[in-house]
Specification:
By secondary structure, this protein is of the alpha+beta class. The chain is built from 20 helices and nine strands. The chain has a nine-stranded mixed sheet with strand order 5-6-4-7-3-2-8-1-9. The radius of gyration is 38 Å and the shape is elongated.
């Protein structure tokens, strides 16, 4: 009986223990469920479409910039190509004056005669478009793809032959060559058949007004006077050369200027404007911030630091909404150690005050603001005055004092640390030490941002090289083509010079001087035109959060002009054998 009582007691105890565990389990489950429910209530879900993805949106902006730039560059190439076509067709028609006059005398109409030149131009167009599109579809897209492949991850690029673009290119080419052929034929077909059957008389040389200036006239040699007379004697050819060279020079200057506009902002932004070495995002716990401050103060690798606040601010423009970073340093009087606020042109330094805010130049352009205007970010209680517009290239910023911030948004709570480090400090070890503190959330070094930006900028060099090569080849073709026509049309004149005793070098210089003067004029006009073209391309390539350097340095002008003059010198060298091969007896032949 005693044993039975003992067993019953043990069983009761086990049952009680089981019930206790069950109750504890239910309580723990209830507590866990409550935690999950609270976590679900506090959790915010953000659902973004593909257009909101940073990589996708950035790539979309890049494609828009390339598309905008592609809309202007072909225009220059088309204009120069039309110029070359007009010169070629004019020379062809002039060389076949006798044949045209014979056809007219035999009863052929102007339409029938013009048709053969139109067919010639059409065949040249079809051949050129066929080769050009094959090269263009395979070379240019792959070069641009290579540039952006360093920034994005792409699958293998497929470059199919786009018949719609090819037909559009053919239509433009036929239109240009067809119009130029009709212009060349119309001017010649106006003459009577008897006049067309005789060679075109050379243009008369006239005494220039500048030669009446006795002092200057005595300074000029005979050859220089002849060059000046020929320069004004063949005004149409000179005009074509100047236009063609100016277009090529403008493209060269735009290529170099675009590269500088992008490359220069790396050093300007991350070495001059942003003077801090690192940004440390911190929690809002005051005790943890105090402990982190003690660590930074004791660390010899940290030379200076300052707390501040950075938050996103939404601004409403006339036609769009823009995002900017609202930066509020705790000690505005010492903020110049971390961020330089200055005028881009005069380099006048600005100081933050309670009178208003300082905004960057790009943001001022987007919102059409100037000094003295007011702005009011979304959620701000009051509007604030723009006291200055500062230099900045990457990102949009609004700088203000804590007092100005509190007037807009209320309580000021720092969430960032601007930090400068000692020279030669190992950033990886320093970041590891800072992140060991609970207050430190992230550490972002300026050197990392600058290196990343430099890698992106380096990809632009491929596109610039492509533009420079195409522009250089275009300049070379224009110069060679027009110079060759100049020699062909003046074959009797040059042969006569040889008969009169001009040496080979003198005959070459006779033509080279004219080309040089035309090239210098075309280069000068091209540099002026290139300023406006470069500014247009730079502004088109910009996005809302980036401002490229709008200034074109002197070396870009020097390189563009030097390359153009080098092409002119190369053309003169290539044409020397043709000048040497001129038969002196050609000047003695009868006109018939």
């Amino acid at each position: 009986m005693a044993e039975l009582a003992t067993q019953k007691a043990e069983g009761a105890q086990q049952l009680a223990d089981a019930e206790q565990k069950l109750n504890n389990g239910e309580a723990e489950y209830a507590e866990a469920e409550a935690r999950v429910q609270k976590l679900a209530e506090d959790t915010r879900w953000y659902v973004f479409g593909r257009a909101k993805n940073p990589g996708w949106s950035s790539y979309a902006l890049d494609t828009e910039r390339v598309d905008a730039i592609a809309a202007i560059f072909p225009l220059f190439f088309i204009l120069v190509a039309a110029l070359v076509c007009l010169t070629t067709m004019t020379r062809m028609v002039d060389e076949q004056r006798t044949e045209i006059g014979t056809y007219r005398a035999l009863g052929y109409g102007t339409a029938a005669i013009s048709l053969q030149y139109l067919l010639y131009a059409a065949i040249a167009c079809v051949t050129g478009v066929a080769f050009g599109t094959v090269i263009g579809y395979q070379v240019f897209p792959r070069v641009i793809f290579l540039c952006y492949q360093l920034m994005y991850r792409f699958p293998y690029i497929n470059c199919p032959y786009r018949w719609d673009y090819a037909i559009a290119c053919l239509a433009v080419a036929l239109l240009c060559t067809g119009i130029t052929a009709m212009i060349a034929c119309r001017a010649t077909l106006r003459e009577a058949p008897s006049q067309l059957m005789r060679p075109k008389p050379p243009k008369k040389g006239k005494r220039l007004l500048i030669e009446r200036w006795k002092w200057l006239s005595r300074k000029l040699s005979f050859n220089h006077k002849v060059t000046l007379r020929n320069f004004f004697r063949y005004r149409s050819r000179v005009l074509m050369t100047v236009i063609g060279i100016s277009g090529c020079t403008a493209l060269l200057l735009t290529g170099f200027g675009l590269y500088h506009a992008v490359a220069a902002i790396v050093d300007l932004q991350f070495e001059e404007v942003f003077r801090y070495d690192a940004l440390v995002a911190v929690s809002d716990d005051i005790e943890q911030q105090v402990q982190l401050s003690e660590v930074l103060t004791r660390d010899e690798r940290v030379t200076a630091y300052q707390y501040g606040l950075i938050k996103s601010a939404t601004l409403y423009g006339d036609h769009a909404t823009y995002e900017a970073n609202l930066a509020v340093p705790t000690q505005p009087e010492a903020f110049t150690e971390y961020v330089l606020l200055r005028d881009r042109k005069t380099h006048t330094a600005y100081a933050l005050s309670d009178d208003g805010v300082v905004i960057n130049e790009k943001l001022a352009k987007l919102l059409s603001l100037s000094v003295g205007d007011t702005l009011q970010p979304a959620g701000a209680a009051v509007a604030v005055t723009v006291s200055a517009i500062t230099e900045n290239y990457a990102g949009n910023y609004i700088y203000c004092t804590p007092a100005v911030y509190e007037s807009m948004f209320g309580t000021y709570e720092p969430n960032i640390i601007y930090m400068n480090e000692a020279e030669g400090a190992e950033e990886a070890a320093l970041a590891e030490r800072i992140l060991a503190e609970d207050a430190a959330l992230t550490v972002n070094f300026s050197s990392d941002s600058g290196d990343t930006f430099r890698e992106l900028v380096s990809t632009l060099s491929y596109i610039v090289i492509l533009v420079v090569i195409c522009s250089g080849l275009l300049a070379l073709v224009v110069l060679y083509h027009l110079s060759n026509i100049n020699i062909t049309e003046r074959m009797r004149e040059l042969a006569t010079l040889k008969v009169l005793g001009f040496y080979r070098n003198e005959v070459a210089a006779y033509v080279a001087r004219e080309n040089l003067v035309s090239t210098v004029l075309g280069t000068a006009f091209g540099l002026i035109l290139g300023i406006f073209l470069c500014r247009f391309v730079v502004q088109t390539a910009e996005v809302d959060v980036v401002m490229f350097c709008p200034d074109i340095p002197v070396y870009c002008f020097v390189i563009a002009a030097a390359l153009t003059l080098m092409f002119a010198f190369l053309v003169n060298v290539l044409l020397r054998p043709k000048l040497a091969a001129i038969d002196m007896a050609a000047s003695m032949k009868a006109i018939e």
